[in-house]
Amino acid sequence: MLLGSVLCAAAPTSAFAMFLVGRALQGIGCAGLLIVTKVILADKVNLKENAANNTVFTIVAGIGYSIGPVIGAYLTETSWRWCFIINIPIGVIGLVLAHFVLRPELLGPQEVARADGVPDPALSQTLVARLSTIDFGGQFLFLFGMGLFVLALTWAGSYYPWQDVRILAPLVIGVVLLVAFAAWEYLLLPGNKLSNRSPTKKAMIPMKLLTRRNVGLLIYVNLVTGMAMYAVLYFVALYFTLIKEYSAAKSATNIVYYMPGLGG
After folding, report:
1. pLDDT per residue as tens digits for the range 35-52
2. CA 218 to CA 263: how far, in whole Å?
3. Mean per-residue pLDDT, 176-188
């Protein structure tokens, strides 16, 4: 994320490709940070403490979503580069604190184990063995499937007609890959074909979780709140800026009024 911020801040106005690469690195880095944060919050705590940790994290994130666009808007009025420069010192401080404060408190690397829980002292504990526990196949199918699906919905009606092959091709291929992803994850369940071939590989999404009521409810709540949040932060912001012709700072300030409702 830091490297992406540096590239974006330093990108000449004539080098849009450099800016796009920086934004891509920022996206990858921020996605990783979100997951690592969730892992750290759940480390060495019971379910009750984990729920409390996530509540605090959600409150802090909500405050960030509220004031972040306002700060960013005022920075943009000075120079758009400051929106990326501000990440650099905060990120460096975060790296230092994570290494010296958090690292000693965490469980650390865990032993490679079978997905079905059967003890096997003969399992390798090398770096290659640890990498083999990652569900690369599931990640590939999900990312490309969802990416093509979203791309088709983004282009359809805006750039090309719905019946255009440039819409139908990514839409059909995306759906096929998502179906293949669901099948792949099912086959990775303990006792199934792929799990038997790679007993230490952990499924990207354990399918059994999706059949539980509480998990399904949480997924639904996250989907709805996510849709509402990005509708406000993206589309409403565009409305204020392009239709109402507000300044960046005034647009961002108006968005803050939506945040208590989202929090509720």
Report:
1. 888 888 888 888 889 888
2. 15
3. 94
> Which pLDDT value is given to residue 78?
87
Spatial distance between the Cα atoms of 132 and 247, rounded to a whole number of angstroms = 51
Q: Is the pLDDT of residue 102 over 90?
A: no
CB atoms within 10 A of CB 240: 19
**Listed residue (62, 60, 61, 40) closest to 50, CA to CA:** 40
Alpha-carbon torsion, ordered 124, 125, 128, 134, to 10 deg: 100
pLDDT of residue 150: 92
Average pLDDT, the chain: 89
The DSSP-derived string for 64-101 is HHHHHHHHHHHHHHH-TTHHHHTHHHHHHHHHHHIIII
Whether residue 231 has pLDDT greater than 90: no
- The reported pLDDT for the residue numbered 137 is 93
**How far apart are the C-alpha atoms of 165 and 121, rounded to whole Å?**
54
In angstroms, the CA 25 to CA 5 distance is: 8
What's the alpha-carbon Rg for the chain, to the nearest Å? 22
Are the beta carbons of 5 and 84 closer than 8 angstroms?
A: yes
Q: Which residues have C-beta within 8 Å of that of residue 229, sequence separation ≥ 6?
A: 65, 262
Reduced to 3 states, what is the DSSP secondary structure of residue 156?
strand
What's the predicted TM-score (pTM) here? 0.72
Evaluate whether 123 touches 210 at the Cβ level (below 8 Å): no
Per-position DSSP letters for 183-201, written without gaps between them: HHHHHTSTTSHHHHHSTTP
